[in-house]
């Protein structure tokens, strides 16, 4: 199967990285999407995949950088001839989120206007996603693919639960951490993965700065932690993603993000620092993600 990282950034607008979204493309042509942050729909177009051909979307958590392309993705799929409904698997709160978006929700006027054409009425189901809320355990399983979720440690569970995924298909295992600090859940999911796609948002210097500033969650994984975790899990290969703007030279980020990022430390050299810190403990195949990175598993 092929894995394509559509977006590899974190929560802020970053000119060089879209928000989190990962495409899984099976040999038999089936497409699955993990998370749907900003840019996901346009990135699919760039790699010659019709958003309407994604049969299921799996959401790790409801932070905006993992879901905010959802209305664009669903309405685009409708306009690009999706047949039937998109299936969305998400944590508790996903039904409420999706229920407020489409008919009777935020995009009601748009849908009413477009649905006045018979061609749009013909596949109106495309703008009525089916939502299943999942917890720990098997999220989806058929003869081609099995997706298992386990809770990870990112934002307080009573506000919004967060999960990682273990995906088994074509006799391979791909694990996606979602957003998390190091925790037992992701350690279990990652065990002996053929490919571990793990968030790696900030170095410890950035995390310490955020703890002091009191702005934003610091429940993320540093490259030093990712190296330890990947080695302990015997991960056969690793992609570090969800890069927290640490490598950006964007002037707006540098001017305006000072409350929660140590902007004086930011720059492309941080990617070398990520590699150095991961390599202290993990010696297997390693990639630092960039948008549209494509890997055969
Ligand atoms: Zn995130
Ligand atoms: Zn998050």
Give a brief outline of the structure.
This protein has 297 residues and is of the alpha/beta class.
CATH architecture descriptor text: 4-Layer Sandwich
- The number of E-state strands comes to 14
Mean pLDDT: 96
CATH topology: Metallo-beta-lactamase, Chain A
Radius of gyration: 19 Å
CATH class: Alpha Beta
Strand order of the largest sheet: 6-5-4-3-2-1-14
Low-confidence stretches: none
In words, what does this structure look like?
A hairpin with a 2-residue loop joins strand 9 (163-169) and strand 10. Helix 9 runs parallel beside helix 11. This protein starts with a strand and ends with a strand. The mean pLDDT is 96. By secondary structure, the chain is α/β, with parallel strands linked by helices. The strands form two sheets. Strands 6-5-4-3-2-1-14 form a seven-stranded mixed beta sheet. The protein has a seven-stranded mixed beta sheet with strand order 7-8-9-10-11-12-13, with helices on one face. The radius of gyration is 19 Å and the shape is globular. It has a single domain (2-296), classed as Ribonuclease Z/Hydroxyacylglutathione hydrolase-like (Metallo-beta-lactamase, Chain A), CATH 3.60.15.10. Helix content is 28%, strand content 23%. It has helices at 40-46, 64-67, 70-79, 94-99, 108-114, 118-121, 184-190, 204-213, 223-232, 251-256, 269-279, and strands at 2-7, 21-25, 31-34, 54-58, 87-90, 130-133, 137-141, 145-151, 163-169, 172-176, 195-199, 238-241, 286-288, 293-296. The site of one zinc ion has 8 residues, from helix 2.
Features:
single chain; about 300 residues; alpha/beta; Metallo-beta-lactamase, Chain A; seven-stranded mixed beta sheet; 11 helices; about 30% helix; binds zinc ion
